[in-house]
Write a structure and sequence with these properties.
The protein has helices at about 5-20, 240-250, 255-265, 305-315, 330-350, 350-370, 395-415, 415-430, 435-450, 455-460, 475-490, 505-510, 520-530, 540-550, 560-570, 570-585, 590-600, 605-615, and strands at about 45-55, 60-70, 75-80, 85-90, 95, 100, 110-115, 120-130, 135-140, 150-155, 175-180, 190, 205-215, 220-225, 225-230, 235-240, 270-275, 285, 290-295, 320-325, 430-435. The protein is an alpha+beta fold.
Length: about 625
């Protein structure tokens, strides 16, 4: 594999630092203050990780050792992040050394401080995970699709990798890695690395990630699944009963990769595969390099929800290649990615579909602005998350306001000029991190000042809400949907023929825009005609169930269907939306009854969000 130029220069820089005689002045690296990591990378940092671990399903732990190559700037200690880990021993350059775990913090865990020599270049930690490890979800066979064998997956973003690997868990510290992973025979392991395409007889799998990535992108999944190639560089992993469905649903992946390359440069990660995880996966997707983790809720049978795949693919440039320096700059990852996603969708499926998605994104932003009206500072793009869990800030602002900012820039500058700017941006900053302030300087120098354009960048980034010069997004198809809805409200009549070719996005727009005055009787009439309660599309289900709660509709056994949905889907966005509707409509007792049953099936990320939302206090605390 050809080493990217930026990485090549970084290696030279690191080698130069390591070669400095002790008596010379120490090198000062350019790491900024990190609010969510104990690491002090200006003193010493990890640049390569070697894992040798065993996945123990019986005891639900991962155990083994982690060996690290480090860059040591004449320091006598290195600090890693650790949370809910059992650290058994530590060596430096092959000799046992002192280590200590600092005070526990509910969000950040503990600093793991290791004594090293000024010339130490390698450390090794023997450790195991515990029952409180938040990144891991252990699933019993009955919680999987095939219901025959257990499953394990990790979720590292934002700061959970430290709960299954002692690591410097900051997005600005990048490392290569390799791993030997022992799993029970009959199961396969895959990682965000070079992956096997079939099971072996021993259950021992070797992985290598040759390109430097931040810790949150180190990922592992273990289960009974297979692989099916879509092209030479794209394919899907899924459990046997799901594999052909996933293959059909994601068959446009190669088209998406080609479209992305045509926009903003070569795909540098060689392979773009997707693994469909069990329903408890807390996100729509996670952009682990080479292997996106995805929820099964996007398998609709008609490729209608695959914009999520375009989104995770876009992260191969915005996020994985150019990474937010700290989680305060989260919009640098997600705003760019939503913009790129829309461009991929337009290239593959046409402008009208992309504009429908963009308009729904705009409405999501309005909803989020309303939710955050009492905390306006949370609607800024640049955040101050010190002392807060960065996961709590992963809302629509970074995604949809970030997209709208870039969309407005595009319309101000013209698409061709803006595309050239973004392509240059990704190329020049490959395998590095980006702060908001650094991006603003780059934007001014390379686009705005160069073209004598005045733009209210500071207002977009550092002020609450949305500036008045925002791009206006329209969709003829969604306008038609609004007209049909309005006609129904006025005349209490509905012509099904007008909806026979509707996409899920049109149905979602239709349902989301039910007025507050809509009656339960009108809900029943639509449900009798359209059978929305029994929809097989998860996105339509979510918005319909939310509206059923909002309008006190109980027809077609919808209450049972809502409970079944919450008991079978762990995607946080869906789950949170419906539980919020329960709470908003004074049905907290009903919500808690459902949640007590569904909670054990959710990942810790979803659990934390819903615990806080509903004020749920379990008798025996699971996540400390």
């Amino acid at each position: 594999m050809n080493t990217p130029k930026a990485l090549f220069y970084l290696i030279l820089f690191i080698m130069a630092g390591c070669a400095q005689p002790k008596e010379e002045k120490a090198i000062v690296y350019s790491y900024v203050e990190e609010p969510h990591s104990y690491a002090k990378p200006n003193n010493a940092f990890i640049n390569h990780l070697n894992l040798d671990i065993t996945v123990d399903f019986e005891n639900e732990i991962i155990k083994g050792k982690a060996t690290y190559d480090i860059v040591n700037n004449n320091s006598t200690q290195i600090i890693l992040d650790s949370k809910h880990l059992d650290i058994e021993s530590v060596t430096a350059d092959g000799k046992e050394t002192e280590f200590s775990l600092g005070a526990k913090d509910k969000i950040m865990g503990q600093p793991l401080t290791i004594t090293i020599g000024k010339n130490t270049k390698k450390i090794e930690i023997v450790y195991k995970t515990t029952k409180d490890t938040e990144a891991l979800q252990w699933l019993k066979p009955e919680q999987t699709t095939n219901k025959t064998k257990p499953f394990l997956f990790t979720q590292g973003q934002a700061i959970l990798t430290r709960t299954w690997i002692p690591i410097q868990d900051s997005p600005q510290i990048r490392m290569t890695y390799e791993a030997n992973v022992q799993v029970p025979k009959g199961l396969m392991a895959v990682m965000s690395a070079e992956n096997p395409k079939e099971k072996n007889e021993t259950g021992l799998y070797h992985f290598q990630m040759k390109q430097a990535i931040p810790a949150y992108l180190i990922a592992l999944a273990v289960g009974d699944f297979g692989y099916k190639a879509i092209s030479e560089r794209t394919g899907v992993y899924a459990e046997k009963s799901m594999l052909n469905k996933a293959y059909d649903e994601f068959s446009d992946m190669e088209k998406m990769v080609s479209a992305a390359e045509n926009l903003y440069g070569d795909y540098v990660w060689e392979q773009f595969d997707v693994i469909v995880l069990p329903p408890s996966f807390p996100f729509g997707g996670m952009e682990n390099p080479r292997l996106t983790f995805a929820t099964p809720t996007i398998i609709a049978g008609d490729k209608s929800l695959t914009s999520l795949i375009a989104h995770e693919l876009a992260h191969s440039w915005s996020g994985n290649l150019v990474t937010n320096t700290t989680w305060n700059d989260f919009w640098i990852n997600e705003g760019f990615t939503v913009y790129f996603e829309m461009r991929i969708m337009e290239a593959v499926y046409g402008k009208e579909r992309a504009e429908m998605l963009a308009l729904i994104s705009r409405q999501d932003l309005d909803d989020e602005l309303e939710n955050l009206k009492d905390t306006p500072n949370a609607t800024k793009l640049k955040l101050n998350l010190k002392g807060k869990n960065p996961d709590d800030a992963m809302n629509s602002i970074a995604y949809d306001k970030g997209y709208l900012f870039l969309r407005t820039l595009e319309e101000t500058m013209g698409r061709d000029q803006f595309d050239a700017f973004l392509k240059q941006y990704f190329k020049e900053h490959a395998f590095s991190t980006m702060t908001t302030e650094k991006f603003v300087t780059y934007l001014n120098t390379n686009l705005l000042e160069k073209n004598k354009i005045t733009f209210n960048t500071d207002e977009w980034i550092n002020q609450p809400g949305v500036p008045k010069n925002q791009a206006l997004i329209t969709s003829d198809k969604l306008k038609n949907v609004e007209n049909i809805l309005q006609d129904f409200i006025v005349n209490n009549d509905f012509n099904q023929e007008l909806t026979k070719d509707w996409t899920p996005q049109e149905w979602v727009h239709f349902i989301r825009n039910f007025p507050a005055t809509m009656t339960a009787e009108q809900m029943k009439k639509l449900d009798d005609l359209l059978n929305l309660t029994n929809s097989s599309n998860s996105y339509i289900q979510m918005v319909w169930y939310e509206q059923a709660l909002n309008h006190d509709y109980h027809g077609k056994n919808v209450d049972t269907k809502i409970a079944e949905f919450l008991n079978s889907v762990g995607r946080r966005w869906y789950v949170e939306t419906i539980f919020k509707a329960f709470k908003r409509n004074n049905r907290l007792e009903d919500a808690l009854k459902i949640y007590e049953k569904s909670r054990p099936k959710y990942h810790s990320v979803t659990v934390k969000t819903i615990d806080d939302l509903l004020g749920f206090e379990p008798e025996e605390e699971v996540i400390k």
